[in-house]
Every structure is written in structure tokens, then in C-alpha cells.
Amino acid sequence: MDKFFDLSGKVAVVTGATGILCSEMARELGRRGAKVAVMGLEDDLSKKIAEEINNEGGTAIGLVCNVLEKESLTSARDAVLDAFGRIDILINGAGGNNKKATTSKDLSFFDIPADALQFVFNLNILGTIMATQVFGEVMTKQGTGSIINISSMNAYRPLTNIVAYSAAKAGINNFTQWMAVHFNQNYSPNIRVNAIAPGFFLTNQNRFLLVDEKTGDHTPRAKQILGHTPMDRYGDPEDLLGTIVFLASEASAFVNGVVIPIDGGFSAYSGV
Ligand code: NAD
């Protein structure tokens, strides 16, 4: 099996790698022998995570990269090419929801400001598309590559309250299929684009929805989520890693344009 899952010598770019889920992905790629470019908005945190990967025996560099700014993306790409010479794996990890684009008893759908909606659309959709333009172009020159986008449960059926985030992640599923076909038809049959759709993980972007600020208890929404998750728990960031290694490696050589749910059964359960 080692031959299938081996990532040694591959070069991986992870955007949003200073976040809770994608920092774990970056660390796992490092453990598997990939050279990792840890990219985040915060330069010091990117460098700190890269240093930790290096201290564990891996090879990593930390870079600042705003996925919504072309110049930031291209200078990060140039730094990766200077350091490692190629790009084999791209995880489009930067993304998330925002309270200002979330309906609540204090904010009706009709009052959500356009700039809040735009912020969430841009971060999730535009950021993924722009990063794929900049890093994916390198893969077209090599003729090989594996891109992994991050979707969500709300891409299949929208979740209440998070209107822009639901629409944006539905767009990620569509873009994943579109991009897979486009690379193959126009550049190379050996560039693959897939996505994972995580279920519910307690992280910075959703804590305000899931944990009662005053008591620290589950909110009613959190209880609903756990009640609809047959495995009866939140995901742990580690739960994503097996699928990430699978999609990044030769083990998934003929898997292209798919979205894999990692959700403890949430999407399978009708609620009855
Ligand atoms: P997180 O908030 O911990 O991490 C998000 C990361 O994105 C941070 O490192 C942040 O610095 C970075 N980021 C924000 N704006 C950026 C920009 N303009 N350019 C570059 N980086 C930027 O969130 P997380 O929960 O680890 O989420 C990671 C991914 O997983 C996101 O795409 C998120 O939508 C998705 N996701 C999360 C869950 C969950 O339950 N937490 C579920 C499904 C999908």
C-alpha cells in the first residue's frame, strides 16, 4: 500500500494553513514526506507552523498569502518555486463563514449588508478560483497535479442562517467538477481536482453558532447538528487526514471531479 499513499518528494501548497483544519492537513503532508508551503494571512503563524513541521523531521516553508490578491498569490507561488521547484498538490483551504452574513434574531436576511455577503462569497469562491489560477497554471506546465477544494455539508442542502456561505460552498462543488474537466480537456489528463465536504468541526468560524458564549453549553443549533449526526459527535481535524492523503496521492489516480463527504453520516441521515 505504501506505493499508493507515498507523498515523498511531492510539493504541497496549503492555503488557509494557519487555520484549525488546514494546519493539521499541512502537518500530515509533512509527516508523509511532502515538502509543504504553509500559507496564511498571518506571516508569523505560517512560519511557526512550518517550523513545527521542520522540527518533526519534515520540510516546510511558511509564507504569507492572501488568496484574494493576485500579487500576494503570485509572490507566494514564486517563493515556492524558488524553494522547491514545482507544485504537485494544492489544498484550497482558505475559507469560512462570517457573523455579519449570518441571519439571527438580531439580523434579518433583508438587512444583511451587501459587503458582508460579498466577503463570504469572495473568500470561499473567488479565493479558491484565484488560487487555482495561480498554482494550477504551474501544474499545466508539469502535466500533473492534484487539487483539493474544501466544500461543506451545506453544499448539498443549505443550512439555516448561513445564506452566503451555503451558496458559496455549493459553488465550490460546481467549480470542482468544472475545473477537473477543463484541466483534462485543455492541458493534461493527469491533473485532478476533487473536494472534501467536512461535516461539523468546532473551529473559530462556527464557534459563535455552536457554543453558548455565556454558559459554554451546546446551543440549540449544536444539539440539532449532533442529533442529525449518526456518529453523535463533532469531527476531529484528524478525521480529515486519511481522505486528504488519499486524494493527494496516487491511491486516487482515477478519482476526479468528486466531492467526498467526511461527516459522521450527517448527509446520509434523513432525520427519521
Ligand atoms: P479557520 O477559521 O480555523 O481557518 C481558516 C483559515 O483561512 C485561517 O488560516 C485564515 O487565516 C485563512 N484565511 C482567511 N481569509 C483568508 C484570505 N483572504 N487569504 C488567505 N487565507 C485566509 O477555519 P477552518 O474551520 O479550519 O476551515 C478551513 C476550511 O474548511 C474552510 O474552507 C471552511 O469553510 C471549511 N469547512 C469548515 C468546517 C467546520 O466545521 N469548521 C466545515 C466544513 C468546511
Put the structure in a nutshell:
A seven-stranded parallel sheet has the order 3-2-1-4-5-6-7, with helices on both faces. It is an alpha/beta fold.
Reported by name, the CATH topology is Rossmann fold
Query: What count of structural domains?
Result: 1
Shape verdict: globular
CATH class: Alpha Beta
What is the residue-mean pLDDT, rounded to a whole number? 96
Q: List low-pLDDT spans.
A: none
CATH architecture call: 3-Layer(aba) Sandwich
Content-based structural category: alpha/beta
Return Rg in Å. 18 Å
Associated small molecules: nicotinamide-adenine-dinucleotide
* Topology pattern, helix = H, strand = E: HEHEHEHEHEHEHHHE
Number of strands: 7
CATH superfamily: NAD(P)-binding Rossmann-like Domain
Strand order of the largest sheet: 3-2-1-4-5-6-7
Largest sheet: 7 strands, parallel
The portion of residues assigned to helices is 40-55%
Tally of alpha and pi helices: 9
Give the N-terminus to C-terminus distance in angstroms.
Answer: 39 Å
Summarize the topology:
Layout: H1 2-5, E1 11-14, H2 20-31, E2 35-40, H3 43-55, E3 59-64, H4 70-84, E4 89-92, H5 114-142, E5 145-150, H6 163-186, E6 191-198, H7 207-210, H8 220-227, H9 241-248, E7 259-262
Parallel strand pairs: 1-2, 1-4, 2-3, 4-5, 5-6, 6-7
Helix pairs in contact: 2-3, 4-5, 5-6
The protein binds nicotinamide-adenine-dinucleotide.
